[in-house]
Design a protein that fits this description.
- The structure is a single chain.
- By secondary structure, this protein is of the alpha/beta class.
- 43% of the residues lie in helices and 16% in strands.
- The protein is built from eleven helices and ten strands.
- Helix 5 packs across helix 6 and helix 9 runs antiparallel to helix 10.
- This is Enoyl-CoA hydratase.
- Its EC number is 4.2.1.17.
- Belongs to the enoyl-CoA hydratase/isomerase family.
């Protein structure tokens, strides 16, 4: 499918999605949200894709939501249309999603990265939720996800002041999984995605679902859910192959 705001490719079990609005610094507008949803739908359905990688350019991942589009909106229009709600579908995907971030990831761009399962950042990456400077607040989960990852104090400080942090600080406070040189970002991110895509599809999706439960309820509930998922994995052919390969001292060959 031809997209106006994205570039897409499939590489060895990886669904690669590149934000492609360079004239607007990859600002997230309605068209991009709709096309991203369509691209992710395809990746979710594809039997050959095991991991999704979302990236942008070398100097900007996404500079935020499209202010030109938003400036004409009013209430109750935003409420009735549930504006930005379709972007939530990124976090609802069952297959793992990695964000490879170089340059600025601000506002909605940062929120998009936070919806992914983890972020690999280039050394030049910058993260922030500066919506307060525009007289608005984050509207795609930024306050909630940032507070869960970085803690209440860091989330308060960043969102109330609009301060932008660098990749090193983002890694220290748990927002970013890894920081790598800019020239290595693509190779490292593809290698991580390839590793995920080569694992048991069932096990990977179950792990993702279990970890997501951490923020949704009490520890006891999460432990019970994890245990039930662990029990059920023994009904899969991947479990048989993975453990048989370990016993046989060979590489497991999981079916896509």
């Amino acid at each position: 499918m031809n997209y106006q705001t994205l570039l897409t490719d499939e590489l060895d079990g990886i669904g690669l999605i590149t934000l492609n609005r360079p004239e607007a610094l990859n600002a997230i507008n309605t068209a991009l949200i709709d096309e991203l949803s369509t691209a992710l739908d395809y990746c979710e359905r594809s039997p050959t894709i095991g991991c999704i990688l979302i990236t942008g350019g070398d100097k900007v991942f996404a500079a935020g939501a499209d202010v030109k589009e938003m400036s004409e909106l009013c209430y109750p229009e935003t409420y009735l249309d549930d504006y930005l709600s379709r972007l939530d579908r990124v976090a609802q995907r069952r297959k793992p999603i990695i964000a490879a971030v170089a340059g600025h990831a601000l506002g909605g761009g940062f929120e998009l990265a936070l919806m992914c399962d983890f972020i690999i950042a280039a050394e030049n990456a910058r993260f922030g939720l500066p919506e307060v400077k525009l007289g608005v607040i984050p509207g795609a989960g930024g306050t909630q996800r940032l507070a869960r990852l970085a803690g209440r104090a860091k989330a308060m400080e960043m969102t109330l002041t609009g301060r932008i942090i660098d990749a090193a600080e983002a890694e220290r406070c748990g927002v970013v999984a890894r920081v790598v040189p800019l020239g290595e970002l693509q190779a490292v991110s593809l290698a991580a995605a390839s590793r995920l895509a080569s694992q048991s599809r069932t096990a990977v999706m179950m792990i993702k679902e279990c970890i997501n439960r951490v923020d949704e309820g009490a520890l006891a509930e999460g432990l019970r859910f994890e245990r039930r998922m662990f029990h059920s994995v023994f009904a899969t052919s991947d479990q048989k192959e993975g453990m048989r390969a370990f016993v046989d001292k060979r590489t497991a060959r999981f079916r896509p």
